[in-house]
Amino acid sequence: MKIDQITAVITGATGGIGRSFCQKLIEEGATIIMVGRDERALEDFQHELFIKMGVKSNQVYFYACDLLKNENRQGLVKYIESFHCPVNTLINNAGDNEFGLLEHLTEHRMEKIMRINTFIPMTLSRALIPHFSQQEQAQIINVGSTFGSIGYPGYSVYCSSKFALRGFSEALRRELSDGAIAVKYLSPRATKTSLNSANVLAMNKELNVAMDSTHIVADQLINLLQGRRHELFIGWPEKIFGKLNQIFPDLVGKSIIKQLPVIRRYAQLSE
Questions:
Q1: Which residues contact 88 (CB under 8 A, 6 or more apart)?
Q2: Is residue 16 a contact partner of residue 44, using CB atoms and an 8 Å limit?
Q3: CB atoms near residue 222 (< 10 Å)
Q4: 52 contacts 31 by C-beta, under 8 angstroms
Q5: Which of 66, 88, 245 shows the shortest CA–CA distance to 182?
Q6: C-beta of residue 21 within 8 angstroms of C-beta of residue 215
Q7: DSSP of the chain
Q8: pLDDT band at 239, cuts 50/70/90?
Q9: Mean pLDDT for the stretch of residues 4-17
Q10: What is the pLDDT of residues 192-231, one digit of tens each?
Q11: Number of domains in the chain
Q12: What range does the domain containing 263 cover?
């Protein structure tokens, strides 16, 4: 699909990756609907796009709501269905994460991570299938993670949410393969965003973990949107480790376990 033919809904639009997604899509000629919880942040970002990028007022819209609430998700779907031009792309980008050993995470945090990272993309996708089925072409993009392919200590709940999202994407892609909707999965590796605490940044540096800028992730989103691939994994050697983990999990596990003392040390600092 050509980018200038896209009208996209982007959840988590004012976060690090979300902002870069919005900017890149606009540069390429798409129309966007930014979704986030903070109305003021959305207004400020929209104004920034108007002033700094010279964006047309009919190219950028926003809808403020907390997607954890069912009535708000229903409101967003109604807004999309009644939008003045056909919306044909959903980018499930909103995400949550917390680095720490499982025994120290509360049930509330565990449930919230799973709901934001997995349940909300599933419910929004389900609700928009009837609308998207009426379009000539439509796409659902689920933003996952390298940790959706590799179980990593300190991220057990986050990994669970992204493993589930990857499985959901694969199953729904096959379920809808005879229609107009393409379901795709974008898998960034470690990325420089505010979701990473100072301890995580220090740990990644000590473990020599490469981190991408959000702009690199946005460039790959464009490639995924206009290409035929259904999955795009970003970064070397992460994409190789992900594939290797499916075939030789014990081999990858031994490599990761060597990092465990460092991971535990930083996890304790994060408590």
A1: 1, 5, 6, 7, 8, 132, 135, 137, 138, 139
A2: no
A3: 17
A4: no
A5: 88
A6: no
A7: --GGG-EEEEESTTSHHHHHHHHHHHHTT-EEEEEES-HHHHHHHHHHHHHHH---TTTEEEEE--TTSHHHHHHHHHHHHT-SS---EEEE-------S-GGGS-HHHHHHHHIIIIIHHHHHHHHHHHHHHTSSSEEEEEE--GGGTS--TT-HHHHHHHHHHHHHHHHHHHHTTTSSEEEEEEE--SB-STTS-HHHHHHHHHTT---B-HHHHHHHHHHHHHSS-SEEE-STTHHHHHHHHHH-HHHHHHHHHTTHHHHHHHHHHT-
A8: confident
A9: 97
A10: 998 889 999 999 999 999 999 999 999 999 999 999 999 9
A11: 1
A12: 3-269
Identify the CA nearest to 157 among candidates 95, 114, 195: 114
pLDDT category at 237 given cuts 50, 70, 90 is: confident
For 38-83, the pLDDT digits (tens) are: 999 999 999 999 988 888 788 999 999 999 999 999 999 999 999 9
Q: pLDDT band at 113, cuts 50/70/90? A: very high
pTM score above 0.90: yes
* Token code pair at residue 84: 């003045």
State whether the Cα torsion 40-111-190-145 is positive or negative.
negative
In this structure, what token pair is assigned to residue 97?
């994460």
CATH code of the domain covering residue 152: 3.40.50.720
